[in-house]
Design brief:
Elements (H helix, E strand, L loop, with lengths): L1 H28 L5 H29 L7 H17 L7 H27 L2
Length: about 120
């Protein structure tokens, strides 16, 4: 379970980086991307990973409490990542709001990743 959670968390962190760079490109070009060719397939991929990751992360946190990380944050992170995976393709998305959600997602993913790696190395 721990290896799968580690792999999914790393993948979601990479997706978050991709989302942030896509948003910057879309904002700069001021042109939204094709919904059926790009937006939907990408958002569906992220959603599929989130559906696997969220229950694993919550279960792992219940068994391995981490300071400043709570199961509720995992749920919010999944919701926020799902949301920004769509919003990043549209230039009308608020820059401030998008950054807030993206940074929040990145913070939780990095902290969870560090906690899993720390536990794995202490065994």
């Amino acid at each position: 379970m721990e290896q799968k959670l580690l792999a999914l968390t790393e993948e979601l962190l990479q997706k978050t980086y991709h989302i942030k760079s896509t948003f910057e490109e879309v904002k700069k070009a001021n042109q939204e991307r094709d919904f059926y060719q790009e937006v939907k397939p990408f958002a569906d991929d992220v959603k599929g990973k989130l559906d696997q990751w969220e229950p694993l992360a919550i279960e792992w946190l219940k068994n391995n409490p981490v300071k400043y990380l709570h199961p509720q944050q995992i749920t919010h992170t999944a919701e926020n990542l799902d949301m920004i995976s769509i919003q990043c393709f549209f230039p009308k998305t608020s820059l401030t709001r998008f950054r807030h959600y993206a940074e929040s997602v990145e913070y939780v993913l990095k902290n969870l990743l560090n906690a899993i790696q720390k536990k794995a190395s202490s065994i």
